[in-house]
Write a structure and sequence with these properties.
The protein starts with 15 loop residues before the first helix and ends in an 8-residue tail after the last strand. Helix content is 25%, strand content 28%. With 155 residues, it is an alpha+beta fold. It contains two helices and nine strands; from the N terminus they run ααβββββββββ.
Length: 155
């Protein structure tokens, strides 16, 4: 006869630590995967935003500020890169009176730390409107997308 041993019943459960670890893993996976799965293709990152993000990355990589000038239908960067808007697309500054307006041209400069000069641009595409916000305090280009209505305005 063995004294001090307890006989366990067949009903074993999970410990609190095991449950918390499992919930934490599921929560992290949901946080990482849901934003990617919930994006609709029509509201994905527009090509003009990808171009501006790449210019911002160029500034950080080369350790030289990169300025981009909106000249008519063309975005011209100080590093020699250009982006021409598609037919029917338009891009304009919403704040032409701020420091981002220089010599009759709309200018945004990306600095080596990821920040930029302050400005707001509105991109109007055939099926998509995008509000771009450049900030000296943020290292990401802020943008909000909206599907274009038949009249060409945002919903």
């Amino acid at each position: 006869m063995v004294s001090g041993m307890r006989i366990r019943s067949g009903l074993a459960g999970f410990t609190l630590v095991e449950v918390l670890v499992t919930l934490t893993i599921v929560g992290l996976m949901a946080t990482l995967l849901l934003p990617r799965l919930s994006k609709t293709p029509a509201l994905a990152q527009p090509e003009v935003v990808r171009f501006l993000v790449s210019l911002q990355a160029d500034a950080a990589r080369t350790r030289k500020p990169v300025s981009v000038v909106l000249h008519g239908r063309t975005l011209r960067a100080s590093n020699g890169r250009e982006f021409v808007l598609a037919e029917g697309d338009a891009l304009r500054s919403l704040r032409p009176g701020d420091i981002g307006y220089l010599g009759g041209q709309h200018v945004v400069t990306f600095f080596t730390d990821g920040s930029s000069t302050a400005s707001e641009w509105l991109f109007k595409g055939v099926n998509l409107n995008v509000l771009l916000r450049f900030s000296p305090f943020a290292t990401r280009i802020g943008y909000a997308t909206a599907a274009a209505t038949e009249e060409g305005g945002a919903r």
